[in-house]
Amino acid sequence: MAFKKGDFIVIEYTARIKETGEIIETTSAETARKAKIFSEDKVYEPLLVVLGEGRIVKGLEEALYDLDVGVEKEIEVPPEKAYGARDPRKVRILPLREFRRANIEPRPGKIVEVNGVPATVKSVSGGRVVVDFNHPLAGKTLVYELKVVRKIEEPEEKIKALLHRRMRRIPEEKIKVTMSEDGVVSVEIPEEAFLAEDIQYAKKAAATEIFRYLPWIREVRFIEKHVNPQPAEKPAEKTGEAGEKPEEGEEPSQQPVQGQGVAEAPEDTQEGREPQGS
């Protein structure tokens, strides 16, 4: 069963450089630890791919169209379908003082930004810094070991997958999605996500992607539910002669409160009295 453009699939993979065998990326935490590339800042889990989206290496995406769910395969991706060929013109020499002026201490292998463009420091010598604006993997042939774990079919599951992709620290099972017949999606995320970094941007980006891939959805609502961890008992209503509630069907008492009484006003204050407001 070949896949087609627009299909939602979830994959596992490990990528290495063909020439050296060095593992550069993986969805497996165990593999990352063995390769000594594990990072606490990264979430290791199967990756959502929307075919045709162009978010992954071109050669890898092209190979996915011909796979089936559950099948494992090793593919080779040449530089022109990965990170491109190396361009010698992208290697430049800059004065060291420019880096020090920006409070940056360049050293070989460090990734820096020059006018907003990332570059790798190749060498530092004699007041000059050699930087390479090529991608670190430019010119490399990559080998991917990959497996399609599943294909997502249901609209609600597609929405959850898109949301989780933008909120990687929130487990997908903690995201609750309901969808009405008139195209309104309600999303409830757990309380621990309310103050997550860039959460508002993540919600906006996820909503945009939902509209793109499920165009019949007309509205996305995010619900924040705050729960009291130790709710107290509701105070009992006050009772007593003055505030006692009448039994059901019983007329409220018309008796005056003791000590106040009700009496007619003196005649001289009733007769000839001007209407209020005249």
In short:
The protein is built from 6 helices and 12 strands. It is an alpha+beta fold.
Helix count, DSSP H or I runs of 4 or more residues: 6
| Major sheet details | 5 strands, antiparallel
Low-confidence stretches: 256-278
Please state the second-level CATH architecture of the largest domain. Roll
CATH topology of the largest domain: Chitinase A, domain 3
The whole-number mean of residue pLDDT values reads 88
Number of strands: 12
Share of β-strand residues: 25-35%
Shape: globular
SSE series: EEHEHEEHEEEEHEEHEH
- Tell me the span between the first and last alpha carbons: 90 Å
> Helical amount among residues, as a percent range?
10-25%
Overall SS class: alpha+beta
From the structure provided, what is the oligomeric state, counting identical versus distinct chains?
single chain
Question: Mind telling me the C-alpha Rg?
Answer: 34 Å
Number of domains: 3
CATH class of the largest domain equals Alpha Beta
Key descriptive features of the protein:
278 residues; alpha+beta; Chitinase A, domain 3; Thrombin, subunit H; Alpha-Beta Plaits; 3 domains; five-stranded antiparallel beta sheet; four-stranded antiparallel beta sheet; 6 helices; 12 strands
